[in-house]
Amino acid sequence: MQQIKSERTTHPLGAGMTMIAVVALFALGGRWLDEKTGLGPLFLLIGFLIGALGGFIHLVAALAPELLPFRSKKSAFDKSARAGERSPEPESDDHSESPPDQASS
Predict the structure, then answer these.
(1) Could you read off the pLDDT of 25-82 as tens digits, one per residue?
(2) Which residues contact 99 (CB under 8 A, 6 or more apart)?
(3) Which of 36, 46, 85, 103 could bridge to 80 as Cys pair (CB 3.0-4.6 Å)?
(4) Is 25 helix (H, G, I), strand (E, B) or coil?
(5) d(CA 51, CA 31)
């Protein structure tokens, strides 16, 4: 039986587990802050919301980066960045730098 090779570089299960881990860590950090400050579930809720937002952004960036409204020129999820390839240098319109003069002796 042949396996179908996927174009994706990130496995959906791994991206989902990362989201769960991020939410859990931020929620636990918020709970710890609540115990230290005695402010009730305030930091727990803040930690949960920050973790959920960050985890969701990571999930979308890993599985469907074209859906993000903001994309950097060089993303951590870019295939060429993972492969170690260098992106072509943008051509500059600034020609103020001239090549060094070669002095003849």
Answers:
(1) 999 999 999 999 988 899 999 999 999 999 998 888 888 888 878 765 555 555 555 5
(2) none
(3) 85
(4) helix
(5) 13
The pTM of the full predicted model, rounded to 2 decimals, is 0.56
34 C-beta neighbours (distance < 10 Å), count: 18
SS3 91: coil
- In this structure, which amino acid lies at residue 66? E
- Residue 75 contacts residue 61 (beta carbons within 8 Å): yes
Helix and strand tally (H, E) in the chain?
A: 3, 0
CA nearest neighbour of 76 among 5, 10, 3, 4 = 10
From CA 58, how far away is CA 61, in angstroms rounded? Answer: 5
* Rounded Cα distance, 66 and 44, in Å: 32
